[in-house]
Amino acid sequence: MSKLKLAKDKTLRDFLRVIPYERVVNEVAAICLEAAYDLPRDVLKRIHECFDQEKSERGREFLRQYLENAEIAHRERLPLCQDTGFAVYFVEMGEMVHIEGGSIYAAIAAGTAKGYKEGYLRRSIVADPVFGRRNTGDNTPPIIHLTLVPGTKLNVILAPKGGGSENMSCLKMLKPADGRQGIIDCVVDAVVKAGGNPCPPTIVGVGVGGTFEKAAFLAKKALLREVGSVNPDAGYAALEQEILDKINASGVGPQGLGGDTTALAVHIEHFPCHIASLPVAVNLNCHAARHAGFEI
Questions:
Q1: What's the confidence (pLDDT) of residue 15?
Q2: DSSP secondary structure code for residue 63 in this structure
Q3: What is the DSSP string of 71-93?
């Protein structure tokens, strides 16, 4: 190899942030356990608030049990729920980051297998959705949403997704003329029809705009927002509140058995769309809205 090429290689490497493959594997394994055991503070805070406001005695008892369950899981280092979920990752990777020893996809998959094995977390993934449905044995492959961003940091968020709430998701291609009211009706109808299946109170992620697949991605991403946070756009903030009020006036309640608390929050993400389209996706998360992450 020529001295000129060595110099060029060295110069390029000087600009890169090199992160060892095994470090990513170990960090991913750690957040698999953290997400399974520790309910985030924003979710706990919102459940406490709902407990204080709930008028139904049955509803209050369910909310009390959710809080007790979260405390036991944290203290005993046990899963919050027996369904430890499909491992879904949202990754922001700096353009100048290099994973040394393997790809970011391979590292996250290996970390998922390691974390689920070490924590004795339930493996819920089958290799083929139709033929055989054989369990992969290590909860892989994960779902990885990777975004390249400027800089030299790697940010990874894991949001395990249980089957009960995921099965209640929906997507509709509304007509532009359906407008604001069409969105409200679509979301409220999805939550009410879901009843107790997604283990309410739920967090309701809504994706508006884009294309068929973009709307679904936005709905899932919306679940990552801090519970109860206000949308920065005043129009969407008002829409979130109106939908939340209508959902909680439905009477579905905790576990679908009646009460004032059917949803903890409604979060909307939006994106430009085609003049002929108005896609709306709804992705529900049960009260155990698990997520954990790390930044390197």
A1: 78
A2: H
A3: HHHHHHT--SSS---B-EEEEEE
Inter-residue contact 152 to 92 (CB < 8 Å)? no
Class for domain 3-36+81-160, per CATH? Answer: alpha beta
On the 0-12 / 13-18 / 19+ scale of CB atoms within 10 A, 263 is: buried
Which residue ranges in the chain fall short of pLDDT 70?
A: 1-14
Q: Which residue has the tokens 């004795």?
A: 120
Yes or no: say if 111 and 88 are a contact pair by the CB < 8 Å rule. no
pTM, two decimals, is 0.92
Instruction: Please state the φ and ψ torsions of residue 90, each to the nearest 5 degrees.
Output: -115, 115
Q: Phi-psi bin for 241: left (phi > 0), alpha (psi -120 to 50), beta?
A: alpha
Distances (CA, A) of 120 to 36, 37, 82, 88, 198: 11, 12, 11, 18, 24
| Strand bridging mode 17-20 / 202-210 | unpaired
